[in-house]
Design goal:
Blueprint: E1 14-17, E2 23-27, E3 31-37, E4 46-52, E5 62-67, E6 72-76, E7 85-89, E8 104-105, H1 110-113, E9 117-124, E10 130-136, E11 139-145, E12 152-156, E13 162-165, E14 170-171, E15 193-198, E16 204-208, E17 213-217, E18 222-226, E19 238-244, E20 249-254, E21 257-262, E22 278-279, E23 293-294
Antiparallel strand pairs: 1-2, 2-3, 3-4, 5-6, 6-7, 7-8, 9-10, 10-11, 11-12, 12-13, 13-14, 15-16, 16-17, 17-18, 19-20, 20-21, 22-23
């Protein structure tokens, strides 16, 4: 499939699937093509729904997209006439090619208006708050969506743990600082966040460009850091993550190859028990001191 026979553009940097099963294909320089599963035909068949342009932006270099329960986020790369920035569709329904542009918006945060976005991840934290994290060359950001005063944009760093966007500047209180003996993001190294992955056990993994990776626990709001200095990582440049629910292995993509370690199993494994033999046979569990040997 290419731009000649249906897709909006021939360069595809990112693909994601929304909650309704629609496939959003980012087409560099053109926007997105949206496909839906064809239920009338057997097999892996998708029909094209429509093409989509992000806002009224002249450049359409869409590199990453993600859906949350409240909005869609789209990362736009830099062009000759426009800086890279984060756009969002501030509604829960899927935008379309002809939808009115006022539903599109972007933040007034300079770091998200002039940036290259490397990855995005969203999840519901242990307190029921929706967190959407953004890894960009300008820093690590998170949007909190709930009904409390914590709603809004945050920036995470190595000197100040967390800052809140007031609408015109980044601000923090003493509660947003690191403790004296607390591990800091990327072990206090000023590194570009490159990749994000929220695992099934409630940990957000943040890969960096040169300082390994940090594991963030949203419940305790603490970081644990891994690098080539304290772990078997092949490189300190972490570009991607993936988790196999059957083996429990977290795969870590680096510039020097693939590293992995075991997180835990989340998928039920089906095993063939036809070859199990038990002695004595027949087994009488009500008998006194009735041991059973199973092979």
């Amino acid at each position: 499939m290419d731009n000649v026979n249906g897709i909006f553009g021939s360069t595809v940097p990112h693909i994601t699937i929304n909650d309704d099963g629609y496939v959003l294909v980012s087409c560099y320089d053109r926007g997105l093509s949206i496909y839906y599963p064809e239920t009338d035909n057997p097999g892996f068949v998708f029909e094209k729904k429509e093409d989509l342009r992000v806002s009224d932006n002249g450049g359409q270099k869409v590199t990453v997209s993600i859906q949350t329960p409240y909005r869609y986020y789209f990362a736009m790369n830099r062009t000759l006439t426009d800086s890279g920035k984060l756009y969002y569709w501030d509604r829960s329904d899927l935008p379309n090619f002809v939808t009115e542009y006022p539903a599109w918006d972007n933040t007034n945060i300079y770091e998200l208006q002039n940036c290259t976005i490397n990855a995005m991840e969203t999840f519901t934290d242990p307190f029921g708050r929706q967190q959407t994290w953004i890894a960009a060359n300008t820093g690590l950001f998170m949007y909190m969506n709930n009904s409390s005063s914590e709603n809004g944009w945050y920036q995470w760093g190595t000197n100040i743990k967390r800052e809140f966007w007031s609408g015109s500047s980044w601000e923090h209180t003493n509660y947003d600082l690191y403790y004296v003996d607390e591990e800091r993001l990327f072990s206090s190294n000023d590194a570009e966040p490159m990749s994000l992955f929220y695992d099934p056990f409630g940990i957000l993994w943040i890969g960096s460009n040169g300082s390994g990776m940090s594991a963030y626990d949203p419940y305790t709001e603490r970081f644990t850091n891994y690098s080539t200095a304290n772990s078997p990582l092949l490189s300190d440049i972490i570009v991607s993550f993936g988790h196999d629910p059957e083996s429990g292995i977290l795969f870590i993509g680096t510039t020097e190859g693939l590293s992995s370690f075991k997180l835990g199993i989340t998928a039920n494994q089906v095993r063939n028990l036809f070859d199990v033999k038990a002695y004595p046979s027949p087994y009488r569990p009500d008998a006194d001191n009735a041991p059973m040997l199973r092979i």
